[in-house]
Design a protein that fits this description.
This protein is α+β, with helices and mostly antiparallel strands. The protein has helices at about 20-25, 90-95, 105-120, 140-150, 155-165, 180-190, 200-210, 245-250, 255-265, 270, 275-280, 290-295, 390-395, 405-415, 430-445; strands spanning about 1-5, 5, 45-50, 55-60, 75, 175, 195, 215-220, 230, 235-240, 300-305, 305-310, 315-320, 320-325, 330-335, 340-350, 360-365, 375-380, 390. The radius of gyration is 23 Å and the shape is globular.
Length: about 450
């Protein structure tokens, strides 16, 4: 690993220790430990990554969710390296100039998020969504971001680092493997009965909580074949390893419902790591992408020791965190049809930008020339043990004109179709109301759309 311009030997590192805790043991305590779940952003650092065009970029990530086994062959910048002596980095200076520090505990995380935005030229409204200020001081921080957006960036050692970046050599660290092709990954799986790791965001939470994990881990985030993303007239093919931040940038306007969901899916730090394949493989009933895949009738391409096969996403989820995958199979890509019609995605959560959904919903509806429903998909997350479609209501709606009486009946039927979860996030009755109300909102917002 290269850390703050210096090569670091990780041969003695524990592959399951988080980058955050490893940094703090190296006395690099500017990276703070807050929630340990990737929710607060106090542990934000900059990971150097190379995009498809060969250009390196700084990517904000949560150090609390990155196991050290995944850091072999990586390059990282922490807050300690920004200033040179008493000369602050422009991002730090902007925070000082605009009084953006408050108590100071969360400040390094904000600085590192702004640092990544500074070199990307990206200061949209979401650049600090993944950072919580415990002193409610967002306005001065936003003023600092606005000032940085207007400031021309000169050449410095960080831009030179990006221009000259060459990743350190990638090796395995103990029981943590980092294959660079699918064949090697499958061979490792058979040999070790190991667990796959797509991005490690779920694994990181388990590690920070001291929960049991597999004894051997295989990270698949550096396999080029899993990073493909191609857009065609009638579908898009998305590699299982493509991070959500790439989907957000490269699929703009292709899938309207996805455009609605991704800004609120998670914080920038999470989206820079979390992947489509990881969302599918974890099979969480509240995975925000899964209702979208159901609504789009996606097809999952998988590969295992016995060869390749395809699985329809409808039927892929067999129970709570259970899928149709065989134990040694790997999700390779997902093909998502492009449907022309009314479509939208909704997420209801207590902290919409970086929290688990109470209910997520994606609707796709196509009208024929007589304004009758010719195609409909109503997909939900957060209402059952698996992501689920309202198939009975879909069948009832087909062939009907979407007038007010049909809408009201559909809403009533939706509320009756599921027996929603009842937990600490929301009551079953609240979820039942949302199931119907979100469809009514969708119709109100999109019925007149072409």
């Amino acid at each position: 690993m290269r850390l703050n311009f210096q090569l670091v030997d990780l041969s003695d590192a524990d592959p399951t220790e988080s980058l955050l805790r490893w940094l703090r043991r190296q006395r690099l305590t500017g990276t703070k430990e807050g929630c340990g779940d990737g929710d607060c952003g106090a542990c934000t650092v900059a990971l150097v990554e190379t995009s498809d065009d060969g250009k390196a970029r700084f990517s904000a990530i949560n150090a609390c969710l990155m196991p050290m086994g995944a850091m072999v062959g990586r390059e990282v910048v922490t807050v300690e390296s920004l200033a040179i002596g008493e000369v602050l980095h422009p991002v730090q200076q902007a925070m000082v100039d605009h009084a953006g520090s408050q108590c100071g505990y969360c400040t390094p995380g904000f600085v590192m998020s702004l640092f990544c935005g500074y070199y990307a030229g990206d200061f949209d409204d979401h650049v600090i969504d993944g950072n919580l200020c415990r002193c409610t001081g967002y306005l001065p921080i936003r003023r600092a971001a606005k000032a940085l957006a207007a400031e021309p960036r000169g050449a410095d050692r960080f831009s030179a680092l990006l221009d000259q970046h060459q990743a350190p050599e990638t090796t395995s660290l103990g029981t943590f493997h980092n294959p660079d092709n699918i064949a090697d990954a499958l061979a490792l799986k058979v040999a070790h009965h190991a667990a796959w790791i797509a991005s490690g965001t779920d694994l990181g939470v388990a590690l920070s909580r001291g929960q049991h994990i597999a004894s051997v881990l295989i990270a698949i985030d550096r396999i080029p074949e899993l990073q493909c993303l191609s857009i065609h007239d009638n579908h898009a093919r998305i590699g299982a390893g493509v991070p959500l931040s790439r989907l957000e940038r490269e699929l703009v306007g292709v899938f309207p419902a996805l455009d609605h969901l991704l800004p609120w899916f998670a914080a920038r730090q999470i989206k820079n790591r979390a992947s489509l394949g990881g969302n599918l493989g974890s099979a969480s009933p509240i995975g925000d992408l899964l209702p979208w895949l159901l609504a789009q009738d996606a097809t999952i391409e998988v590969r295992g020791p016995m060869g390749a096969r395809e699985l329809a996403v409808d039927g892929f989820f067999e129970g709570y965190r259970q899928t149709a995958l065989q134990p040694d199979e790997l999700i390779v890509a997902v093909r998502v049809p492009r449907v022309r019609g009314m479509q939208a995605g909704y997420k209801v959560a207590k902290r919409r930008g970086d929290d688990i959904s109470i209910v997520a919903a994606v609707f796709v509806l196509v009208l024929d020339d007589d304004c009758r429903i010719a195609h409909v998909r109503l997909a939900y997350g957060g209402v059952a043990a698996v992501p689920i479609r309202a198939k009975a209501v879909e069948a009832w709606l087909l062939g009907r004109a979407l007038d007010e009486s049909v809408l009201q009946e559909a809403v009533a039927r939706l509320r009756a179709e599921f027996t929603p979860l009842d937990d600490h996030r929301a009551s079953a009755e609240y979820r039942r109301a949302l199931v119907g109300n979100l469809f009514a909102q969708f119709v109100a917002e999109h019925k007149e759309a072409p």
